[in-house]
Amino acid sequence: MATVVLNSVNVMSQTTARRCFMSHLKGLANAGDSHLSSIPKLSVRRWSSLPGARWFTCGTGARFMSHGAAGRSAPGQTRRGALALTGAAAVAAAVVGFMANAGHFQRAEMATRIPQVAEEEVERDILERCKGFMSAPVTDISALRERKGEMCTRMEMLIMETQAEFCRALEEVDGGTFKVDRWERKEGGGGISCVMQDGKVFEKAGVNVSVVFGNLTEEAARQMRSRGKVLKGKDGKLPFCAMGVSSVIHPKNPHIPTVHFNYRYFEIEEEDGSKQWWFGGGTDLTPIYINDEDAFHFHNTLKEACDKHHSQYYPDFKKWCDRYFYIRHRGETRGIGGIFFDDLDSPSQEEAFSFVKSCARTVVPCYLPIVYKHLNDSFTAEEKDWQQVRRGRYVEFNLVYDRGVKFGLATPGSRIESILMSLPLTARWEYMHEPANGTQEAKMLEVLRNPKEWV
Q1: How many Cβ atoms sit within 10 Å of the Cβ of residue 433?
Q2: DSSP 8-state code for residue 257
Q3: CA 155/CA 134 separation, integer angstroms
Q4: Chain-wide mean pLDDT for the chain?
Q5: CATH number of the domain enclosing 46
Q6: Within a domain: 455
Q7: Cβ(194)–Cβ(165) under 8 Å?
Q8: Which of 53, 63, 135, 356 matches a 20 to 30 Å C-alpha distance to 222?
Q9: Transmembrane ranges (predicted)?
Q10: Domain that includes residue 225, residue range
Q11: Reduced to 3 states, what is the DSSP secondary structure of residue 247?
Q12: Domain count, the chain
């Protein structure tokens, strides 16, 4: 997408970023927000149900009952201002993340409904919630407060909270600190990349939020139309906004898996002022050595989140994940999967957002217990070499098949550092590498070549 041109990169240390952020918050508070001290902060509690587990996010679940309207807002509900974008390739994935299945198009369908209720993220003050973030949001806080009931604001707050919660959970287990890197886009919007490199536990950990808006290019619009989207612009232009959070974590210990997640929202305004919108995302695990208990915990956590909304979501989105994260030239999946969905635009925006929120709130409880469990596992030089070989496969998928990465690398002016954040610091390629029969490495490869049902 030619409009995704990023510049004016402003790299700050975490200390500097937070100092500026808190100063900004203080100024807003002094301007008339003395009541903020009475508002509750981010809801996070200790999780003690699993050995070594530390964090569990309190979420809400609702059961749905019937169909509603899909993917379109009424005319006149136009939002002006900075919005957010991300995917596996940060900015680039904003558009292409929703095109991930162009070769085998499938639409995520919601089959249920919840009543309109006051959401906790609307009830609580925007400014108070921002105090828990890694940095100030991409959108100006005053603009967010003015439009706190709009979906773009609610989604931006969700992805900022997801970034902060995950980063702080990782900092606690590692003992290191994330570098907070803000960047801007001259056409509008920008992003916040949080990266921790060469820590005690994580060789490279990245958690990105990005927010972009502008006009969709004709090429991007054609690709969407080829996937069933009927888009009618004005004077050849299609105003859009896209937002999301994405993360890839590469641990040092080969017995701690790599994890990836991204959750995103896309909105397009058509000629008559109406909007088309959809959500996408997912979470998947890439272990170096298979552990049935870990696989069950990871998949079951995701299944429980899906089951709050519909019993068919987990099996459908698990299969979709196995199909998407597939390295065709190797004949194997990238990892043991998880869930993946795209084009989620029914039966209503409220219901789709509720589902995405449930999924986003699993990123800490599905992964951190596994990290703590294997934190002190010993490993051999041979096991480290196998980790390097598997990381090579991870790189192959991202550079050859991941549509967000490919799109970003082909987009003039896109922010390469954020796009390639998903790659590990180190990897290895051995000629004609094949593990010996009967080894743990061969067992891992068998699972990748024949995906299993873990729950």
Answers
A1: 12
A2: P
A3: 16
A4: 79
A5: 3.40.1500.10
A6: no
A7: no
A8: 356
A9: 82-100
A10: 7-449
A11: strand
A12: 1
Condensed to tens digits (0 to 9), the pLDDT of residues 59-95 reads: 333 333 333 344 555 444 444 333 333 343 444 444 4
Q: Which of 6-15, 21-30, 67-76, 280-289 has the lowest mean pLDDT?
A: 6-15
Summarize pLDDT for 221-268 with one digit per residue, the tens.
777 766 777 777 777 788 889 999 999 999 999 999 999 999 999 998
Tokens 């088309």, residue? 276
Q: Alpha carbon of 401 to those of 103, 181, 199, 204, 329: distances in Å? A: 12, 27, 29, 22, 10
**Given a cut of 50, is residue 31 above it in pLDDT?**
no
Look at phi and psi of residue 339 and say left if phi exceeds 0, alpha if psi is from -120 to 50, else beta: beta
Identity (one letter) of the amino acid at 323? Answer: R
What's the token pair of residue 182?
């803000």
Distance CA 97, CA 50 (A): 34
In a domain, 379, yes or no: yes
Q: How many residues does the chain have?
A: 455
Task: Tell me how far apart the alpha carbons of residues 180 and 23 are, in angstroms, rounded to a whole number.
Answer: 16
Q: Is 197 buried (19+), middle (13-18) or exposed (0-12) by CB count in 10 A?
A: middle
Query: Would 102 be classed as within a structural domain?
Result: yes
pLDDT at residue 33 greater than cutoff 50 = no
Inter-helix orientation angle 349-360/151-174, to 10°? 0
Q: Rounded mean pLDDT of 105-116? A: 47
260 is catalytic: yes
Would residue 1 count as lying in a domain? Answer: no
Catalytic residue among 260, 297, 299, 309: 260
For the chain, counts of helices (H) and of strands (E): 15, 13
Rounded alpha-carbon distances, angstroms, from residue 101 to 229, 305, 346, 366, 400: 13, 23, 18, 25, 15
Band of the pLDDT at 450, cuts 50, 70, 90? Answer: very high
Helix 363-373 and helix 292-307: axis angle, to 10°?
Answer: 170
| Exposed e or buried b per residue across 99-114, where buried means at least 16 C-beta atoms within 10 angstroms of its C-beta | bbbeeeebbbbbbbbb
